[in-house]
Design a protein that fits this description.
This protein has 14 helices and 19 strands. It is an alpha/beta fold. It has two domains: about 350 residues, Alkaline Phosphatase, subunit A (3-Layer(aba) Sandwich); about 25 residues, no CATH class. The termini are far apart.
């Protein structure tokens, strides 16, 4: 009996020791945060906790997201180019069906297989209507938050439907959303976390995305912004609130003694939107655009003892790189069956090496105008921005060619001087766009007049056995083929 007991203790000790060797991971994702809107960037917005991450970690000065929400989140979860997922062009709206297909492998699934406890608290925005598309069926042991975008911070409604849940069960909560995200993250760490397992905690905030709402006491801190014609004061308060939530989570990590063994990554899903107060200076453009202000975002990584404190890097990093980089840092296997597009940049972060990318990065947006596309390609320091406007009888293409090494703020258009390079890069963009699935998502900024939001999005999630669209028996062969192309398996082109 005594021998058996000692054996159990020994095995438990070994298990705990192995768990401690694996770093915990916390990912903070801001929504529509401007490049210039943090304290360490010179902003008047109070962000002491994010500033602390910058001073204790590494500022990633050339980190690229996509120009809009859904593509970035898709790339983060899969390490694959959103063009292959059908999510490259637009943000998924509550009235649109779709999302990242269920046959794609998600980052938390790999961490689960490696023994991690996984949790997500915040905004999902990459699929909502079927079980196979929601967080607690895609690798997260625990999900608390919202499936959609444009969620009211107080009522927790999106497009007329209630959107706050915990693991598929609807919740009513009378509190400011950002506060909830911070408090629930602390609750996970304090009450729900298994202390013998490493954890992956993903916290995608709603803030500072519209609707522009913030507590009055925080808005009062920014009286100097009161006279602006846009809600810059509210925007500042929303960023401030997010920083405070991050601070509470950082404090809890320290209280539990796990801070030194935790990798923290903070970044924004795209650039800030000027109409709501976001500032992306010194970079050009903002959200929805493929100029640097729309895609080059604030990003910080802290890993005590591994990443030099107070350091910076100019390594080109894509949001697609996050999954392979974190997997390498944790020494776990990625279980993707499909070819990923991201690369492991961990050696660049821990050893200050610059890794040359073998393939270009591509960006796209067709928001908010239906027949207008913003595209870009970055290959080394060369960048081509294309704006394509489709008219009734013609197509207008405007090209901007930049040398980011010499002109990171995109002031000098070199397109006319370099027609051959423009032609070559234009062809590459066109080839890249050809990978978009037939039934892939394009923007629809307003719902069909017949659409009605469900009373509650959590209760509207359907079981997977209802995902196959069955055509009405009265349809002929051609109509059935059209339905299959639009909604069925054949409607999605496979790219391995």
């Amino acid at each position: 009996m005594r021998l058996c007991f000692l054996t159990i203790i020994f095995v438990a000790f070994i298990y705990v020791a192995e768990a401690e060797e694996k770093p915990n991971i916390v990912i903070f994702l801001a929504d529509d945060l401007g490049y210039a809107d943090l304290g360490f960037r010179g902003s008047d917005i109070k962000t002491p906790n994010i500033d602390r991450l910058a001073s204790e970690g590494m500022v990633l000065n050339r980190f690229y997201s996509l120009p809009i929400c859904t593509p970035t989140r898709s790339a983060l979860m899969t390490a694959r180019d959103p063009i292959k997922l059908g999510t490259a062009y637009a943000g998924l709206q509550p009235w649109e069906y779709g999302g990242v297909p269920p046959d794609e492998h998600f980052m938390p699934e790999s961490f689960q297989k490696a023994g991690y406890q996984t949790a997500m608290i915040g905004k999902w925005h990459i699929g909502r209507q079927y079980e196979s598309l929601v967080p607690d069926h895609r690798g997260f042991d625990h999900f608390f938050g919202h499936l959609n975008t444009q969620v009211d911070y107080y009522t927790h409604e999106s497009a007329g439907g209630h959107d706050l849940q915990e693991n598929g069960k609807s919740l009513k909560r009378d509190a400011y959303a950002t506060d909830i995200h911070g408090d629930e993250s602390v609750r996970f760490l304090r009450e729900l976390r298994d202390p013998v397992k490493p954890f992956l905690l993903y916290v995608p905030f709603l803030a500072p995305h519209s609707p522009m709402q913030a507590p009055e006491e925080l808005e009062a801190k920014y009286e100097s912004r009161l006279n602006f014609p846009i809600p810059k004061r509210t925007y500042a308060a929303m960023v401030d609130s997010m920083d405070q939530a991050i601070g509470r989570i950082l404090d809890e990590l320290e209280r539990q003694g796990v801070s030194d063994n935790t990798i923290i990554l903070f970044f924004s899903d795209n650039g800030g939107f000027a109409g709501f107060g976001g500032v992306n200076e010194p970079y050009r453009g903002g959200k929805l655009e493929t100029f640097e202000g729309g895609i080059r975002v604030n990003a910080i990584m802290r890993w005590p003892g591994k990443i030099p404190a107070g350091s910076q890097t100019t390594q080109t990093i894509s949001v697609m790189d996050v999954f392979p980089t974190l997997a390498a840092a944790a020494d776990i296997e990625m279980h993707n069956k499909k070819k990923i597009d991201g690369i492991d940049v961990s050696s660049s972060l821990t050893k200050s090496k610059i890794i040359k990318r073998s393939k270009p990065l591509f960006f796209a947006s067709n928001s908010p105008e239906y027949n207008s596309f913003r595209l870009a390609m970055i290959e080394g320091d060369h960048k081509l921005v294309q704006i394509i406007d489709h008219h009734n009888r013609s197509t207008e293409i405007t090209n901007y060619l930049f040398d980011l090494g010499e002109d990171p703020y995109e002031k000098n258009n070199l397109a006319e001087e370099n027609p051959l390079r423009v032609k070559k890069m234009s062809e590459a963009i066109n080839d890249w766009r050809s990978q978009h699935p037939v039934s892939g998502l394009y923007v629809s900024i307003s719902p069909n007049p017949a659409w009605r939001a469900p009373a509650d999005y959590a209760e509207d999630v359907k079981s997977d056995d209802k995902t196959l669209v069955q055509p009405w028996a009265g349809f002929g062969r051609v109509a059935s083929q059209v339905l299959q192309m639009r909604y069925g398996e054949k409607g999605r082109i496979k790219y391995e």
